[in-house]
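Example 3.2
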Amino acid sequence: MEASLLALWLVRLAFLGLLYLFLLAVVRVLLRDLRSAAREPGSELGRLVVVASPDGEPPSGSVIPLDAVTTIGRDVNNTVVVEDAFASSQHAVLTFRGRAWYVEDRGSTNGTYVNGSLVDDVEPLGFGDEIQVGRVRLRLERPRA
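Structure, written as tokens:
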């Protein structure tokens, strides 16, 4: 066997090994994210407190526990149903990824706001931030201990 052929085989095997290491790293990250999202069913990840609701649904002051994926809108299939003429049926979605919350507007007509700023894409959220959907304002809070 020639030296160049042997070197070519060694390069191929090294490349294959690096490819498998990369795939293993991707699988580890995905499993870690799935485990953090699939906590015990009774544990809260966070909660929304209704700050203002002009039409009364959801009532002001009510507390809504959050899942890893929480949808907000007028449609009854959403996690948080908002009765407001300025809210879309599928208005926004809150997602818990790793250790942080994110909000994404789902192409609503009037937009989603975080602390008064329009959400363009996926925006990170912090506890205490206010989300506005239509005329309804919701505050993200830490889960109860």
